Amino acid sequence: MKQHQERYTLLCEHLTRRGIDVDAVKAKLKAQVIELPSWAVGNSGTRYGTFVDKGAAVTVWDRIDDCAEIQRCLGITPRMATHVCWDKTDDGNYIPVKQYAEEKGLQLGTLHPNTFSGQEFRFGSMCSPLEDVREQTRAHFEDCVRICRELDCKTIGMWVADGTNYPGQDHLRERKHRLYDGLKYLYDAMDEDMTLLLEYKPFEPFFYTTDVSDWGISHLMCTKLGERAKVLVDLGHHLPGVNVEHIIATLLDEGRLGGFHFNNHKYADDDLILGTVNPMEIYMIFKEIVDAETEGIPTAITYMLDQSHNIENSIEGIIYSVMNIQTAYAKALIIDRHALKESQTAHDTIMSNKLLMEAFETDVQPLIEQVRIELGLSCINPLLNYRSGGHQAHIEATRGAGALTLGGGC
Length: 410
Ligand code: PSV
Ligand code: MN
Hints:
Elements (H helix, E strand, L loop, with lengths): L1 H16 L4 H10 L2 E4 L22 H15 L4 E5 L11 H9 L3 E6 L18 H21 L3 E5 L3 E2 L7 H18 L5 E5 L9 E2 L4 H11 L3 E6 L9 H11 L2 E6 L16 H16 L7 E4 L8 H20 L3 H9 L3 H13 L3 H10 L7 H8 L1 H8 L12
Parallel strand pairs: 1-2, 1-10, 2-3, 4-6, 6-8, 8-9, 9-10
Antiparallel strand pairs: 5-7
Helix pairs in contact: 1-13, 2-10, 2-13, 3-10, 3-14, 5-6, 8-9, 9-10, 11-12
Bound molecules: alpha-D-psicofuranose (PSV) and manganese (II) ion.
Alpha-D-psicofuranose binds next to loops.
């Protein structure tokens, strides 16, 4: 603890010298909320197989327990995002799920419909050429809105997995009209205080065309739908080389950035731990968000993780990801924006970049540790907190091994 105090005092002195209001930065870090993906605490994997972790969550109740444990270690993850297909209850009643989450100190976050797991979706869901499939999709949307009401959830995260595999397979403009009709049905079914987040992805499960393949199509649909529709950016849903922070800046400026699915990728939708492969990207994304907030641009962003922990322990992978988010956000908050503005105005390219890198290279851990102390956490290191807390031993002793979570139909 003494070591922490010394490091924290030194960092405060350094930041204050650079004109940074440390209390304001701490307040931002304390107010940050990251939604936990229920589906990531269980065993997931790749299409080639799943390595089974002893004690991994199987039921929605297990997932709530695991997310509550993650929140105990981190203090900024009080909400669990759900996926209707994977979090379903035996009787379709979700009020007990909400009650159990509340008992554990959690709220339910963004609800994700599932229009990709069933056999009926071979040719897509709302974009399918088959009217009966589109009808089933609409019925699913109505059910999702009902579940949202039962869970007291105000956000729907829609990933449209539809697309085609071959040139000539379907009429592309007709698919665009079906897409809009399907989304409009969902949007209109939602309550006035609910927000629709529309996620895009360039390919997979279809490989020739994807109906919502990029932020442009998502943005177009959201604009046509109305104010309560916003773009959801999953970091893994970009082709290599795409500049995601530029997309973020554009969406922020248009008032259409609704939320994130955080993860890290090298090639495609790799779903790796955030901040491992490319820490600079997440830093630059937060830089854009902090810039917008500082400049008075209204933001209402839902932050979620969407990852698949294949070889690492899922709970530890999630905790580590959130720690990396905090690091990136803290660094973005301590950029000397005044000096940066001056060097940009002077067209001093080198100094402008250097100023960005100075914040990126600053060790912000003492600041984040201080935030954890002030949040009342029992340990300043969330990973050590988890490893010494006994939850892993408990779930290994009490849950059966081998049951898989994802895949299959609803
Ligand atoms: C699709 O790859 C996706 O990113 C969507 O958000 C799904 O809901 C999620 O992954 C499933 O993990
Ligand atoms: Mn996603």
